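Extended Data, panel c. Modelled sequence:
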Amino acid sequence: MNNKNDLTTQHESFTELLGQLANNATAVFHDEIELVAQRIREKVRAVHSGVLTVATGAVICFAAFMSLCAALFIELTSYMAPVFAALVTGAALAFIGGAIAFIGYRQLKKSNLKT
């Protein structure tokens, strides 16, 4: 009889251990998910801050570029009519912008073919 009680106690202990193992595994899994989510939130904050800084710098650079374009336009008006100075400035900028866009397009096309 004593042997039967020992088996029942061992069975209950084994069942309790399995339950604890399941609970601990669930807790570890939940904690790992939380850790991954926290890391993602931190990376998003860092990227957001970097993007905001780059955007601010781009806006300031754009304002500086517009000032340089105005200076070019004013300088060209001493050599030609203001209409032609504006056309020359616009055409030169359009050519430079188109060339840069074309170079970027070719680079994107090459990178898409490699993947």
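The radius of gyration is 34 Å. This feature is highlighted in the accompanying rendering.
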